[in-house]
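Quick one: structure for this chain?
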Amino acid sequence: MTEPEKLDLRSHDIAGEKIADLLRLFPEIRTEGGKLDFERLKLALGQSVDTGKERFGMNWPGKADCFKTIQTPSVATLRPCPEESVNFEKSENLIIEGDNLEVLKLLQKSYLGKVKMIYIDPPYNTGNDFIYPDNYSESLRTYLEYTGQVDAEGRKFGTNTDADGRFHSKWMNMMYPRLYLARNLLRSDGALFVSIGEAELGNLLKLGDELFGEENRLTICSRVMKTGGQKGVHFSPSVDYIVAFARSVDELNPFREQIGQKVIDTVYTKVETTGPRKGEKFRSMGLYQAMLEKRANQRYYIQCPDGTLVIPPGETFPDERREGAQSKPIDGDGVWRWTFSRFEQEKANGGIEFIESDRTSLVTPDGRKAKWNVYYKIWLNDRLEDGQLPGNILEKFESRHSSAELKVLEIPFDFAKPSALIKFLMAISGVQDGDITLDFFAGSASTGHAALELAVETQERRPFICVQLPEPTAEGSEERKAGYATIADIAKERMRRVGTKLKNELLAPNADIGFRVYKLAESNFTEWDARVEHEAEAIEKQLELHVEHIRDGRSADDILYELLLKSGFPLTTPVEKKTLAGKTVYSVAGGALIICLKQALTLELIRAIADAKPERVVCLDAGFAGNDQLKANAVQTFRTKGITSFKTV
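Got it. Here's what it folds into:
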């Protein structure tokens, strides 16, 4: 018998069909780009390979750069656009147009730990369904070039096709920093919901487990997208998924959903005829269940209407034959659901039901089969208030429902999620009055739609933040034909029409059905360009830019909202214009912060600001016009009034 032919793994001159055979026999040696991993092949063939220290974890090309991306601070700002907004001055709802990575960075200080729920519907990565920056390390510059705000220098957004050798890696490089930053914004009792398709489900779970912890993964919901159809090869795809994570599962309240009418009609079929709950619907549940955990004080006699005593089946019995007499259960003994004191309390309130039956499992004190069953009553009104545990198969939110609601609004857009789905997630996760919901892959703003409707239904505040890239609509598409240049334009118009519809239906007399629009842009203050050539002329030009370092064309409101974010105040913080010493200043959050944007400060104005006794003061450095003595006087004046936080920009 001849020695088997050995494959020289050091040679790459292997015929294409040989590689195909190897990949078929050993799928684990396939790299992301469909090529052959020789080190894994050696392992598969049993050859000794020094793999170094092994550890459980996840890695992919570009992961190290994700951390650099996360740690790179943003030098952008969000410029207010009242002309595109509805009720800008008072609304707590935000639509932000821009690259969500940069926006998430900008929100870190002001919204850290303040968001109750995040829902996102990121690209499913099916071939051409998302765009990404070619250069992640310069995401703001890439975005500005993409939107025509600066001249292009080769950086751009592109599509991620499945022909790319790092198809999955690029998706993960896009998602990882965004999920990382989003987690920071969640409250300790907050939850994240991510809609996803089959292509990246496994990778999303790994990302979520690493960033949130496996212990905080709540479930994977299957959403029925459609029924029927013959699309596909081996199976017709009918579901996509919603992955749910908690910021901290120990802090998250249990999820509950409303009880449906079908359950009410088919399950709660009994009506109380006497007592304090007369007329209420209820259903019965056995007070004894075989699977109940054994507790020392939950095996006792109960007296039935005819005076007989009953007890769950078992080997041990109480020494005394009277109601309430107990015995300590052993293995094999049944117990009641409640202690005797709880049973007495429920019985006194009409919550116990005795029914004669020959199918009972209960026994008498002498061990014979009893003729009674003991039930406790589950009241419909109580359950309506408490709700029920939701299942992780969602059948009521098919994609056709989204198409129908957009058709009513005369908005052309494909692949949006039904607003009812997001409204359901908001309800079960406990979004209450004033709680913020964030969606940074907003698309046509289904999340904003859901929040507006829920606000109207509850007559409470349900503020939302929707972030959407101004991705151009396709040439010749229905969206472009309808006059929508970008998807962000679709989101804004949808929200206008939803608000108008609710207002016309007289459903929103007090609800906040407006929204504020902000757009991502370069900071209002010029930054030092570290890339400038180290030549006298170039450096001199940079220095000149910093003499008057506010960009041309920027308004007082532009600067105001950038300073709000940098000072840690949400974009919806109440701002009031006040006149002090004949000059206009901005009083933020009831006077906690005063911002003065005047270019010519006076000692009189400084004293007037100090007399207002804010906690913090921010002024333009240009307002002192190089007068160091005036600045020193300002510091001393503020200090004497107990104002220790004074900054110039």
